[in-house]
Amino acid sequence: MTDSQKVFVRHVHTDEIREVTAEQREVLDKNYWVRITGPDVQVTPPASAPSTPSAPASTADVDPTPAPKTASKATTPAK
Q1: Are the C-beta atoms of residues 45 and 17 closer than 8 Å to each other?
Q2: What superkingdom heads the lineage (predicted)?
Q3: How far apart are CA 13 and CA 50, in angstroms?
Q4: Helices marked H in 1-79 — which ranges?
Q5: Could you tell me the pLDDT band of residue 3, with boundaries at 50, 70 and 90?
Q6: Looking at the DSSP assignment, which residues form a beta bridge with residue 62?
Q7: N or C: which end of the chain has fewer CB within 10 A?
Q8: Which is it for strands 6-11 and 17-21: parallel, antiparallel or unpaired?
Q9: How far is residue 14's CA from residue 47's CA, in Å, rounded to a whole number?
Q10: Nearest-5° angle of CA 40, CA 50, CA 63?
Q11: pLDDT computed for residue 58 by the predictor
Q12: What are the backbone angles phi and psi of residue 21, rounded to the nearest 5°?
């Protein structure tokens, strides 16, 4: 692979796709940016990348009280 060759990488959480050089690929965190291949790969701008699915739609949907703990505490062992 030459230094000027472009490769496509995708962020595993945001699904943002970037076109980077091989040198830039070496600097990226490989736990979050994975290389993708294919003839029909399209670059996505960060603004159009989907948001995380676990984020609530609005703050009105969030219950301010925490969920009660269901696990009991550990007991001391019998001698």
Answers
A1: no
A2: Bacteria
A3: 9
A4: 22-27
A5: very low
A6: none
A7: C
A8: antiparallel
A9: 10
A10: 160
A11: 54
A12: -85, 170
